[in-house]
Design a protein that fits this description.
This protein has 4 helices and 11 strands; from the N terminus they run αβββββααβββββαβ. By secondary structure, the chain is of the alpha+beta class.
């Protein structure tokens, strides 16, 4: 019995003799996850598609939009960022609509304004989201940043002998309610995309209330215009 106790004591003593000091804490570098893109709600197709119960579930979607912010200058109301500037002037109605602030905490928390035909700020949001998504696709395909074509103008008093000088265009302008027609176009002089508003055929036939937004068709919120 005593021999067994002595053997156990020796074994415990050997373990104590070979015990190592506590290991130093391992410092692990935490990898910061990539910054998520801005999310903005848009119409997936055309607003009229949502009027049918069969397609209402697929009429809205959310676009993942790159942040159009400079480190020293956040996205301004408009929106106005590094690439784009949304100017919401409606010459036909003689109105200037308040610019949307996509950095507003309430809008950031709910992925922007919900789709609406009667909200001009949603129109601004959608043209911006679609344009920024298009820019992102082009930059991924080209492997470089997008640069806008310069603006050319004559220097001097306008004589034929005057030289033509190129001026940098910092941002492409977007006009969501630029004109009343069934068309949208790029203006080389303005360096802008002008989007139209028009009365659809059924609105011209059916009686409507003056000034009702829903009686018009807005190309700014129609995804086929991409």
């Amino acid at each position: 019995m005593n021999e067994s106790l002595e053997l156990v004591a020796k074994m415990c003593g050997d373990r104590t003799a070979f015990a190592v000091s506590p290991a130093k804490a391992i410092k692990r570098k935490v990898r910061k996850p990539p910054r998520p893109n801005r999310r903005l709600r848009v119409y997936a197709l055309d607003p009229s598609v949502g009027k049918s119960l069969n397609s209402i579930a697929v009429n809205e979607t959310t676009l993942s939009v790159p942040w159009d912010d400079k480190p020293s200058e956040p996205l301004r109301p408009g929106p106005v960022g590094e690439y784009l500037e949304v100017v919401d002037v409606d010459p036909a109605s003689n109105k200037i609509y308040d610019p949307v602030n996509l950095n507003d905490e309430q809008l950031l928390a709910q992925d922007g304004w919900p789709p609406s035909e009667g909200n001009p700020q949603f129109h601004q949001q959608m043209v911006y989201a679609v344009a920024m998504t298009t820019i992102m696709h082009f930059e991924q395909a080209l492997g470089r940043k997008v640069v806008w074509a310069p603006r050319f103008a004559k220097t001097g008093d306008g004589n034929d002998e005057d030289k033509i000088k190129g001026y940098e265009v910092a941002r492409l302008r977007l006009y969501p309610h630029a004109l009343r027609t069934e068309n949208a176009y790029y203006s080389p002089n303005k360096k802008a995309i002008c989007v139209a508003t028009f009365l659809p055929l059924q609105a011209t036939v059916m009686p409507r209330r003056p000034g009702r937004w829903c009686s018009r068709a807005f190309q700014a919120i129609s995804s086929p215009m991409r």
